[in-house]
Amino acid sequence: MVKRAVKQNIGRERAGLMLYLGNLPLHVGAFYGVGSNGIVLNKRLIRLVAVNSATELNSYIFVLLLHEYLHSLGYLNEQHVRSLVQEISRKTFGADHPATKFATAPPSLKIPPSELQPSGQDIELELIKDFERSNLSYIN
After folding, report:
1. CB proximity list for 34: less than 8 A, separation 6 or greater
2. N or C end: fewer C-beta atoms under 10 angstroms in the chain?
3. Per-residue model confidence as pLDDT tens digits over 87-114
4. Is residue 39 helix, strand or coil?
5. Position 86 confidence tier, pLDDT thresholds 50, 70, 90
6. Bridge partners of residue 18, in order along the sequence
7. Is the pLDDT of residue 137 over 70?
8. Cross-strand pairs, 34
């Protein structure tokens, strides 16, 4: 859905991306390594995000993936990417949709005290198979 929204709104697309899940620091939602073909989504953050429904969770994931997908297309200026995420979300879903709201202000986190302590855990990336299959929907 991210690829379709970007193609419809700015006319660009890219193939061959892979998605990984990893336990990253809570201040990192996701990242794309410039020149790579992988986006890493913070599964720890996703687990702790304070949302009220699957639609809100999927909307937040959409915003994170959209942001990193735009980086993969060569948009590297953070302010410009944030503006594009807001614009594409609004044009795709409308002004009142959770994705559009999260593009402006991310949801808060429910952080138990155990998550505040450094864990020393390795990131342990998990590859999501069939990430680019067009028949999969990542938002309702």
Report:
1. 71, 76
2. C
3. 999 999 999 999 999 999 999 988 887 7
4. strand
5. very high
6. 38
7. no
8. none
pLDDT of 8-30, one tens digit each? 999 999 988 999 999 898 889 99
Domain boundary assignment for the chain: 2-128
State the pTM of this model: 0.87
The 10 Å Cβ neighbour count of residue 74 is 9
Contact 99/139 with Cβ under 8 angstroms? yes
Residue 83 and residue 90: Cα distance in Å, rounded? 11
Cβ atoms < 10 Å from Cβ of 87: 14
Nearest-10 crossing angle of helices 2-10, 54-72: 60
**Tokens 């995000």 belong to which residue?**
49
Written as six digits, the tokens of 112 are 């138990």
List, in order, residues 6 or more apart from 100 with CB less than 8 Å away: 86, 89, 90, 93, 94
Rounded to an integer, what distance in angstroms lies between the CA atom of residue 95 and that of residue 71? 23
